[in-house]
């Protein structure tokens, strides 16, 4: 059915919506694709549904190609399976929950691992049934503390979530790899530059996981990459841990008065002046900074911890919270408040040091304090530090890790900075920002264990199934495509994702113009080309052009004054070309252009995978993308 | 992609699911189309999604044909617009509601009138923008007290809901009629016999409404029809109200002792023996029975009422509750309990009578009782009754309505019975049961008023828009199709709605059989025919045949022993025909059969509408349907 501007349910707007920070939010609203229903909750207008439908079709085709079968779960789920998996608690306040009239607990599904597990348990019982891959395209619900940026972080959003079921680890590895390729193909067909980066599993659990990141300044995720092909989000970067140092010759620790050393710089200067090292000057990296933080666990309990790290590093609260090393589930981490510190008088601000018993003097955290003390992994045995003596105005010198103090554990809490070494030795890291548009997980047996999904193996023995889970944010992807493809005057879709293939503008009042536009529309539609026809008869050409620029269909045909000479103007907004074409030829040439655009998009997937297992490297090597990441990196480097 | 039984995510089951009462529930579960997630909440397996997709496609095509544009609203909606319309209360406990982390109220949408109204208010401002018709296919949520019968009455279900917006009543009438035709076309294409019946608006509000009923014993709705074309659900049937009777010559009322008259029969016998009428014998229809009932309003308050009706009638609690005459919103009505009666000592069981002051004796409800007294509409002025005297063992005779007593209002509470006259004079009514699969409403200005949706009219004056709303239960329709099309051994879909066009069974172990089945599959798929191929190599032909019968694709091709002679068996389960066909011809003949089936289904819509405005009558005249209704009627007549 022809989309006609005269009747299409759309009204373009000149004004940005209140509070819109990013281009996709502004333009999808102004061009009449979406409307906000509530914070982070959107309604789809006809133009928006057209684009969304094209994206979903590509996602479904690539899932089918990867051998995944579509199913569909409810959005309203009983709470019990999520209690059994521990996620009723782990999701914390992000979980929308409610009771039915019989007082039973329900949740609005944030993701569906538990119920997919139960469904497979219901249907399958033998290793012969595996491997299995099933997926759905479905509404997800998360009560985000700060929904933002339109479709980029919503509270009700569409996700494609797939799940794999295998009898053993080798099977899981193969399922994971197949899905990884499907993601690369999908994003390539969607025209979205994208990088798989190592990530941490968070509340999902499991062993290995990667995020697919669309590099963009509007993203909330910071990730790193090396020129040698390493890529990870900052939560997943691991520090290179040095070898332990022989401390048999290190001097004994000694406490010294250190007046007037309120900062690390003044402390280092005083140390070099009054207590010089025998071998070289003290640097900030020789001081051990102990930072008091407060962890909020999913059940709401608040825990005070101390994080020790080299003095030349800052704590990255988000990174530390995201590592999964602070507890199960989604934790929040913030700097301790003065109330927190008041509750722990043994923690003397500016002079906190690790627990050590030295000359019968209890210095520190161990023994007198109930707080967990976690160390940066670079603080290996034998390293030698200046740190607080747990007395105002005093520091301890030559305190040696492993000899004089220990910790309750390690934590990757230090901010990753430009130039840090990649953990795989592939060179220095650069930083960039991006949007997570997909994440794939080797879940392993976490959910199968907690929900008792077993099948009989070849020997008739009950064996726990191993699982993978594979999410792709469909509505978020649409926002990213709008971020990637727009101009100053509006959206500018890739040809194969535009809400219609061609935008025809009847620019002028004559009946001949209207008739020619109608005829061209009918001829294109007979060839399977979809048309948005601007047939409004009391709207000036200028307004029509502005609407067309805002709506963003790249191929625009203007039927106007030139018609008298048998010509129409064809605009390609992506290449910024305009040409006058004879009316007699324009249908055939347009059909050819549009078909070629679809074919090119499909071929992009093959190209992206052409180099086989090195597909991610291939994407990473893409010159334009690398440039984009570089630009991001320099802009966001801190 | 070929559906292959060897890998398809399905397991058929011999056992019915626990508590399954109806064929659609039993068979959709056993054939592996759906699984229950929670009471009234279902998960869709691949076969189920295929059929659901075909139904949705037909619904969308007919909506587009009717000029309706697709949009999509969230399922999670802010409560505020529903507060403004009064439906936050009116839906009562059927509404799922929850709070977000900021303590704001949200609901899971039961239907979307309010937010569609607000969206149009956001986008449109002029009469020139109208008429508008928009729709969505979307999850709805209702916390039914008694979810039942699988997909027939669920708590999360898929509904197509459309809304029309017009500047005036004539526009609304035209929009309503266009949608009514779209419904008739849709159900005709779906092969579902269906009758539009007059209904009551219930919590929706508005002026006129019709339900589309699929006549079936498994339905919960009782409806009536006359041979002259009248059809209504029992809530909407109106009694024929007789003309008032001149009571100037009626005898005065008098109270009499009536010992030993515990029933209407004994009362009538005693009346005829001891206090005979001058003109004819008293009958049960001359007694006024006063029934004490309790109304539960949506806000939870409980109200005691008395319903007065002729003694030869029973109260139909559901009908009375559904009329909308008892209060706003969804009310529940039940017989008063002994606690209720104890709280109203003035209501003397067996001897309750209407309020009247006679010979200085206060008999009744008025004055001494706080309860509402509502009368059957047949109790018109001048009718003459025997009824309770509000004293044990005594009745009042010759009590004349309008002269001796009045009521607080009327109510259609009497059970409609076989042979009652149709209100339009089109003959006696017969009763049947059915499933409501759609309902269309002329809402009028209720929602536009409460949410202030106005546009400027041709004179620049702000005018309230008038609306219609049009629901169609997509998942319920699928259940009804399964009810209509199944055999003892399984589902048996109309050809064009089957999960695949053809079911090919490789029945035998030879490689030649497997190869021939694969080749035939490829050749059919090359012609656009979808195939479910049973390629399992350790499953016996008998099991494969049983699975095929359960799954219910009508066209089955068996590649088996006959292959040696170059033949395969083609089964049409709908016509119960089998034939051996040469392998060389079977692809061409099958393609022709399948294409013809799709064309026939599409043509059914044209046929259904062919008689123009009399389309509903045409459907009603369908011989098979009439027979089905008759069968229902005789089975359910009470």
UniProtKB/TrEMBL annotation, chains A, B:
GO biological process, one term: prolyl-tRNA aminoacylation
UniProt KW Protein biosynthesis keyword: yes
Annotated compartments: Cytoplasm
Pfam families: HGTP_anticodon, tRNA-synt_2b, tRNA_edit
GO molecular-function term, one example from the UniProt record: proline-tRNA ligase activity
InterPro entries to which the protein is assigned, alphabetical: aa-tRNA-synt_IIb, aa-tRNA-synth_II, aa-tRNA-synth_II/BPL/LPL, Anticodon-bd, Anticodon-bd_dom_sf, Pro-tRNA-ligase_IIa, Pro-tRNA-synth_IIa_bac-type, Pro-tRNA-Synthase_IIa_type1
Sequence ranges assigned to domain Aminoacyl-transfer RNA synthetases class-II family profile in this UniProt record: 35-494
Substrates-to-products reaction catalysed: tRNA(Pro) + L-proline + ATP = L-prolyl-tRNA(Pro) + AMP + diphosphate
SUPFAM superfamilies membership: Class II aaRS ABD-related, Class II aaRS and biotin synthetases, YbaK/ProRS associated domain
Keywords of this entry: Aminoacyl-tRNA synthetase, ATP-binding, Cytoplasm, Ligase, Nucleotide-binding, Protein biosynthesis
Record's GO cellular component terms: cytosol
E.C. designation(s): 6.1.1.15
Enzymatic class: ligase
Protein role: Catalyzes the attachment of proline to tRNA(Pro) in a two-step reaction: proline is first activated by ATP to form Pro-AMP and then transferred to the acceptor end of tRNA(Pro). As ProRS can inadvertently accommodate and process non-cognate amino acids such as alanine and cysteine, to avoid such errors it has two additional distinct editing activities against alanine. One activity is designated as 'pretransfer' editing and involves the tRNA(Pro)-independent hydrolysis of activated Ala-AMP.
Stated family: Belongs to the class-II aminoacyl-tRNA synthetase family. ProS type 1 subfamily.
PANTHER family with a match to the protein in the record: MITOCHONDRIAL RIBOSOME PROTEIN L39/PROLYL-TRNA LIGASE FAMILY MEMBER, PROLINE--TRNA LIGASE
Record HAMAP family: Pro_tRNA_synth_type1
The protein's assembly and partners: Homodimer.
Free-text note on domains in this protein's UniProt record: Consists of three domains: the N-terminal catalytic domain, the editing domain and the C-terminal anticodon-binding domain.
UniProt name for this protein: Proline--tRNA ligase
Protein's organism: Brevibacterium marinum
